[in-house]
Amino acid sequence: METEGQVVQHLVEGAARSGAALIAAAAAAVHGWVVLVDPVAGVLYSEPQSAASAGARAAAAAAQKSKTLDRGVTVRRVAGVSLVVSPGTTTSARRADLVTRTTAGLLHVRARRAEEIRPAEMRLHSAAARLLLQGQTDLASEIIGDLTAQALVVRLAAGPAPEKAHRAVWEAVLPLTTHPAPPALVALYDGDLAVIVMHESASDAGRVLRLLARAADQQGILGGVSDPVSLDMLASAWLQAGHARADAAVDRGLAHATGLGDRSIARIIPPDRLSAWASDLLRPLDPLRRRTLDTWLHCGSVSGTAQILGISCPTVRARLRSAGNALGADLALATTQAQLLVALRAPESTDGIDLPLADIPAHAPLHLVPDHVARDWAMRLVGDLDLAQRITVRVWLENLGSHSTVARALGLHRATLRRWLDQVADQLALDLSSPTIRAELHLAIETVAGPTESAEALPRLGGRTYPRQPPTGASELPDPQLELP
Predict the structure, then answer these.
(1) How far is Cα 259 from Cα 266, in angstroms, rounded to an integer?
(2) How much is the pTM?
(3) Would you give the DSSP letter of residue 360?
(4) Which residue has the higher pLDDT, 213 or 258?
(5) 11 touches 22 (CB < 8 A)
(6) CA-to-CA distance for 148 and 449, rounded, in angstroms?
(7) For the PucR C-terminal helix-turn-helix domain, which residue ranges apply (predicted)?
């Protein structure tokens, strides 16, 4: 049995190495599990990894105060994050308290140190980001080291308080208690906030985009996201991100150019055919109803649409009913919404297109290309998902992103469903909060899914059984994308 002095020494040594090493040393000292949770970034460190969800639940319960913690679990706020400690049954209360207090103190020291060096790190980020956006990749690599082959650009409106927005985004992407090598650079550039997300791995891009989406929503700011590009094309990506933000139908959050890159449906359909199909599909709508429909599909609620357009909720519902009648389509269906989102984002038709209406398929945009081309595209987008993931995403998209409905349909806990969707987002390197991305995912999964890939066919791992309840019925005009990961 280690003495108290030896325990403290091991914790200090861990803190000197990294935040992860400190949390690992704390978990070993209490013979249990320890998790560090950031309110924006989520779980920063977990030892063991399997305790991450339990730590996140404990941190949320402590924040709400009305919920009681599991017996023996301690939550302590330090440096803006929550330290969650669950000692083993053989650990005394005295030892657990010593480890908790010491770990909290060391985290505070690490956070103070991070605060001290943050101005210098911000200056380095600004210098490297400016060089990259100006095409000086060789000079940028001398500042931040070896660079990856690709990156994407997020362009955020800094607003009237740019320094405050800069700090908020910095803390969201690079929490004080961690010191990751970039997958991201954060800087003020041309009056906006530039976040260059380096593609160290597919999961890095998805994680950073989710953190940025949360920060943008909390700060009430709007941002545009470019497609992934090579480093020598970052200047064009900066412009693309600006266009995505300007074209957005929401007043906060992230608007994606597509986020799909070469996997976008627009890459397999000739632009003239896509434009003609979209023009024919949307022809029954006047500009007023088209704008209302576009805003509703992107912002995710009738009330949000009413606020953006400056009209009443009954007026929004009336326009949507009128649009549905004019299109002869059921706007409550996920496939209808996906097709309309693709059509609304298609390039506008230009003079000179000679495509008879008889040659324009009246159904999904994938009918504009041969079946084998559509299937190849769908496999590139969702082919890496296993059966359980594909069924989960399919049911989630069919139910317009409603976690409660999907959890009942699949017989899963909502926390499990959210974790699975986060894993899918990381695996595909996509931000599932983007309506455009969800639309293309839906079309891709429907293209490759077999008739038996339903909620009832979800594999049950480890022999575990789940209670099953039928999903509730859909409303006449449900708000799309009510619950996002």
Answers:
(1) 12
(2) 0.53
(3) S
(4) 213
(5) yes
(6) 34
(7) 291-346, 392-446
